[in-house]
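Quick start: what a row looks like.
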Amino acid sequence: MITLLRIDDRLVHGQVAYAWTGALGANVILVSSDVVVNDEFKKMTLSLATPSGVKLLCKSIDDSIDFLNSGDSAKAKIFVLVDNSLDALRLAKGIKGLKAINVGGMRMQQGKKMVTPAVAVDQGDITNFREIESLGVEVEIRQVPSEKKKRLQNQ
C-alpha cells in the first residue's frame, strides 16, 4: 500500500527519512528512478540515509509500477520517492488508485521559477502537474507532514 508518493530531488535525506517516514508509519521507502536503479554509488548513499528498520528499494519506473500494482506491495506501507515531475507523471499514469502526489523539493535551476521557498518549476513541470491532475490525482505541496497542504494550482 502506498502511504505517499513524493517528488523530492534530494530523494532520501533527513527530512524524508525521519519526519515523513515516521509520520507515515512507512516500513519501505521505494526510490523510483531509471537513473538511480543503475547507480550503485547513489544507491549506497541513499541506504545510509534510510532509517533503521525501514527497507530501501530502488526500482526503475516500469518495475515500480509493476510492483505497486501487484499483490507483493499490499502488506507493506510504502513511501514512494521520485526526483522529478516526469517520473511522477509516469507513475500516476501506471499506478492503480493513486490519489495524491506531494511536491516537497524541486531546487532552482536555470529556466525555472520559484513557486514556494522549496519548489521551483518550469513549463514542463507545470504541464506534467496539469496532466497528473487531469488523471484525478491531487498535486499538493508540503515540506513536512505538519504543514497544511497547499494546492499547486494556487501557487
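That is the whole record. The chain has five helices and nine strands. The longest strand covers residues 2-8.
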